[in-house]
């Protein structure tokens, strides 16, 4: 083969070969998009007191529950106080929350979050006293205590103040000790249920196919768009954790609903990869009214016998109807990049794009679910 033919063959492969390569969609592990029914955390909550604050705690006259809590705590410690004798501002009543992990054992430590209930202004330097944490069944599962970690701060003077973050919320790393275990064993399960975090029939069916293909048996069956029922095979009886680990490590290609999410408060717009639009013509016009007040002073002529100085109002009103804007053709967008390019061609900001997307949806040209929050 001549060198010229070799050159043209190589040129052909460089130009056309990449066009035949399939685009790989995003693939994720099953554990990242689903959870198992029996493997989850439980919410815990408790009421406690934070002490050691530098005059930034609750005002007892405004928060009677704080005063009652302090009195009850001191009485349990054998200290009796006469009435109307509490004047401290170094104590704050707080709510303590935590998440009890699945299969947490006695003695293990978990993180807790602390939030002020009363009119405390800053929890920095505070220490959380012993606080029982209960679940929805009313049982105590953990006990929290320890120094607070506060990321925000507040400072004030006579003529101003500054606040960064939220100084009335704090956390205690490993601040709670688990005192009660949940009473069930994973190896006792012969059937499991998997829940998708983003419900979708296609994704659920792909998980079912991946599990059945991997183990060579009909172990998984889709119940609905959220749930996949799984039977534990005989070889994994007594080793359910190993079985779940193998399922969680499987890689599939999840499907997603075409969706556009709009946050009206911040103006944020999130457009999914499967969003498509049909060809439409769009224009975005607005009327801007500008009012300027320029009052003038009118005085009588020099040496005039009569007259007085008055203020004469003068108002200038300018109206801009944005007539220079023209109808813009927004072509059919089969890809997300083309959709973004078409919206950017309108030359409007996020607020304008929100109005355009809502109008396109009303016209039936936006083939996606529009969610406004």
Describe this entry's structure for a reader.
This protein has helices spanning 3-16, 64-76, 201-215, 240-248, 336-344, 350-362; strands at residues 28-29, 34-36, 42-51, 92-100, 109-116, 127-134, 140-147, 153-156, 161-164, 169-178, 191-196, 220-222, 227-231, 251-252, 259-263, 268-271, 276-277, 280-282, 288-293, 296-298, 310-312, 315-320, 328-330, 366-367, 369-372. It has three domains: 42-178, no CATH class; 190-252, Alpha-Beta Plaits (2-Layer Sandwich), CATH 3.30.70; 259-286 and 324-372, no CATH class. The model is unreliable at 7-24 (pLDDT under 50). The chain is an alpha+beta fold. Strands 3-4-5-10-7-6 form a six-stranded antiparallel β-barrel.
């Amino acid at each position: 083969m001549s060198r010229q033919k070799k050159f043209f063959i190589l040129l052909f492969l460089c130009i056309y070969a990449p066009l035949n390569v399939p685009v790989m969609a995003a693939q994720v592990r099953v554990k990242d998009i689903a959870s198992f029914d029996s493997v989850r955390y439980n919410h815990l909550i408790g009421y406690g007191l934070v002490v050691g604050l530098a005059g930034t705690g609750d005002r007892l006259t405004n928060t009677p529950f704080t005063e009652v809590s302090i009195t009850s705590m001191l009485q349990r410690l054998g200290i009796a106080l006469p009435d109307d004798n509490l004047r401290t501002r170094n104590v704050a009543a707080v709510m303590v929350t935590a998440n009890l992990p699945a299969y947490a054992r006695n003695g293990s430590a978990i993180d807790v979050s602390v939030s002020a209930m009363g009119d405390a202004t800053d929890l920095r330097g505070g220490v959380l006293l012993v606080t029982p944490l209960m679940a929805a069944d009313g049982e105590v599962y953990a006990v929290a205590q320890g120094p607070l970690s506060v990321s925000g701060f507040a400072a004030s003077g006579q003529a101003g103040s500054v606040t960064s973050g939220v100084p009335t919320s704090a956390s205690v790393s490993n601040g709670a000790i688990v005192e009660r275990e949940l009473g069930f064993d994973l190896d006792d399960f012969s059937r499991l249920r998997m829940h998708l975090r983003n419900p979708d029939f296609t994704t659920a069916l792909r998980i079912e196919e991946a599990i059945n293909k991997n183990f060579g048996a009909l172990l998984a069956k889709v119940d609905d768009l959220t749930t996949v029922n799984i039977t534990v095979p005989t070889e994994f009886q007594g080793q359910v954790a190993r079985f779940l680990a193998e399922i969680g490590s499987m890689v599939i290609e999840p499907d997603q609903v075409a969706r556009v999410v709009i946050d009206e408060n911040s103006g944020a717009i999130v457009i999914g990869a499967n969003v498509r639009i049909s060809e439409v013509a769009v224009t975005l016009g607005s009327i801007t009214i500008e009012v300027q007040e320029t009052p003038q002073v009118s005085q009588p002529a020099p040496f005039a016998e009569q007259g007085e100085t008055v203020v004469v109002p003068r108002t200038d009103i300018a109206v801009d109807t944005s007539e220079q804007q023209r109808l813009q053709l927004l072509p059919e967008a089969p890809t997300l990049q083309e959709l973004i390019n078409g919206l950017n061609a309108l030359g409007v900001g996020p607020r304008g794009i929100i109005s355009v997307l809502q109008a396109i949806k009303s016209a039936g040209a936006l083939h996606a679910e529009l969610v406004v929050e």
